[in-house]
Amino acid sequence: GPSNSEGGGKVSLLKKVPALKDGDFTLAECTAILLYLSRKYNTPDHWYPSDIQKRARVDEYLSWHHANIRANAPKTMWIKVLIPLFTGQPLPSEKLQEVMEGLSTSLKQFEERFLQDKAFIIGSEISLADLVAIVELMQPVGVGCDIFEDRPRLREWRRRVEDAVGKELFFQAHEMILNIKELSNIQIDPQLKEQLAPVLMKMLK
């Protein structure tokens, strides 16, 4: 999302988070950051495989993800919690229905094209593709839209991701998302509301 801080502008020219500062080196965009970290710290091969075809499958999913899963899943959180918090007004239910229909189409493609009958997106081992996917798909869950409930193949994939990461770490990583509704109780500075409300509404167009 947007970051209006002076420090944020120095790290990311787009003034958006996430952003990484590693010494004098700065980097924006979550996928670029993940790939950079996996290379710098020589992570286990399954995260971003050295096998050229397996790596290409990770890249293929990451390329598809942004225009499909990411284009819809996070909007559930904005519609149900964040935009009402900053604008003081709930959005019409039709807006959520529209997003859920788009997400449903993407999930069907995700299961049929990428997951198929495999344990994980690129095969028998977890990769960065699975991490990027699960983080987005937990956002609807956090606002009460359980997209896993009626999708057994997707539900089993989530269970395998949890087991591969470790349940404690998995839920620690998603703690803020799963408790996002608690933000409804906080008080937002009126000036900040005035600044951010138009930006947030624009994100849904």
From TrEMBL:
Question: Where this protein primarily resides, as one coarse class?
Answer: cytoplasm
Molecular function GO labels: glutathione transferase activity
Q: Which UniProt keywords apply?
A: Cytoplasm, Transferase
Annotated GST N-terminal domain residues:
1-45
EC number(s)? Answer: 2.5.1.18
Q: Which Pfam families match?
A: GST_C (PF00043)
Pinpoint the GST C-terminal domain residues: 51-192
Q: Which reaction does it catalyse?
A: RX + glutathione = an S-substituted glutathione + a halide anion + H(+)
Q: Which GO terms describe its cellular component?
A: cytoplasm
Its annotated compartments are: Cytoplasm
Task: Supply the InterPro entries for this chain.
Answer: Glutathione-S-Trfase_C-like, Glutathione-S-Trfase_C_sf, Glutathione_S-Trfase, Glutathione_S-Trfase_N, GST_C, GST_C_Theta, GST_Theta, Thioredoxin-like_sf
Annotated GO biological process: glutathione metabolic process
Signal peptide (from-to) = none
Superkingdom of this entry's organism? Answer: Eukaryota
Record note on quaternary structure: Homodimer.
**Family note:** Belongs to the GST superfamily. Theta family.
Q: Which PANTHER family match?
A: GLUTATHIONE S-TRANSFERASE THETA-1, PTHR43917
Name of the protein this chain belongs to? glutathione transferase
What organism is listed for this UniProt entry? Origma solitaria
Report which gene this protein is encoded by.
Gstt1_0
